[in-house]
Each structure stands twice: as C-alpha cells, then as structure tokens.
Amino acid sequence: MKIYNHLYQIIITFLTFPTTALLQILRRNYVILSLIVELNFIAATPAMAANLSGDLLKQPATEITISLGNSANELKFEPNHLELLAGKRYQLRLTNPSQLKHYFTAKDFADGIWTQKVQAGKVEIKGAIHELELKPGAEAEWVFVPLKSGTYGLRCPIPGHTEAGMTGEIVIKN
User: Fold this and answer.
1) In which element (H, E) is residue 150 found?
2) Residue 45 and residue 89: Cα distance in Å, rounded?
3) Burial track 139-168 (b if 16+ CB lie within 10 A, e otherwise)
4) Residue 133: what are its φ and ψ, rounded to 5°?
5) Cβ(93)–Cβ(63) under 8 Å?
C-alpha cells in the first residue's frame, strides 16, 4: 500500500511541478526505492540462515553416496542423477575408487544451497564451495541444505572426462 501512495505522490508531483524539479524528485525517489529493494534482498539472507541454524541442523542428514569413476576407471558418476528436496539437510559422501583424479563440479547447484561443511580427512571447510577435487582413493563429505529449486548440471571438467560421459544432473524440488 505504501508503494501505491508513493506512486500517487509522484503522479501528483508530475502534474504540478516544473520539469527540472520533477526530474530531481524522480531521481531521488528512484534511488530510495532501489535502496529499499536492495536492503530487502540483503536482509533475506540472514533470515534464511537463522532458520537454518535452528531445528534443521539438529535433524539427521539424509546420506547419499556418489562415486566419481569406479575401479575399472570408467568415466562416470554413480549415480549420475540426484533428486533432492529444498529445505532438507543432506550429507553427500563422495568417493573416488578410480586411479584417476576427478572433480565434482556443479557451480549453479552450489550457488543454490547453503553449505554447512565439507570434510576431507582431518580438514573441515566451511563457506561457499563450487568444486571438489578428489584424488585417487580420496573421500569427502559435503553437508548442505538445498535452498533454490531447479535442475543443475554436474560434470568433471578434466579434459576428456565430460566428453566421455562424466556428467550428471541434480534436481532440487520444493
């Protein structure tokens, strides 16, 4: 309702003010409106994080294991299709049983989730993750909560691996 009142004031101003005064008011109102929209966007992120830090992190994570390649050195993800629910906590166990290194790369997927942690060996990493490299025999654990629904591509960007079929799909549903 405030926006409509604001627009009404702009229209009344347009009808009664000279052109230069009108332009100054429109510029000022545009800047104010832009700042309000940006602040609302920024404020949504801490609110979402606050919701995540509550009961959700106390829930056990749904565990999913994905192999990057296999012992026969086939270039594929097993499984290569995942369906996840937004707002649910997951623990992705990544293993590389092959004799080659592989990447788990899904940048758009990573942008649509909240990562609690990535753990490999005695190292725990927190924050935004876009790609994981697993050397032969390596294992990693990625705990996250999907936030944004959509269909996301997964691939291993090592030359020749994507072309040989080391691709997949991650679907996040509401």
Assistant:
1) strand 150-155
2) 18
3) ebebbbbbeeeeebebbbebeebbeeebbb
4) -105, 130
5) yes
* Per-residue pLDDT tens listing for the chain (174 residues): 566 565 556 555 555 556 566 566 656 655 455 545 554 544 445 445 545 556 777 889 999 999 999 989 999 999 999 999 999 999 999 999 999 999 999 999 999 999 999 999 888 998 888 899 999 999 999 999 999 999 999 999 999 999 999 999 999 999
Q: How far apart are the first and last CA of the chain?
A: 30
Cα–Cα distance for residue pair 92/75, rounded to 1 Å:
19
Integer Cα distance of 87 and 145 in angstroms: 6
The verdict on pTM exceeding 0.85 is: no
- DSSP letters for 61-127: PEEEEEEES-TT----EES-EEEEETT--EEEEEE--SSS-EEEE-HHHHHTEEEEEEEETTEEE-S
DSSP, res 59 = S
Report whether 100 contacts 136 (CB < 8 A).
Answer: yes
Tokens of 16: 């009664």
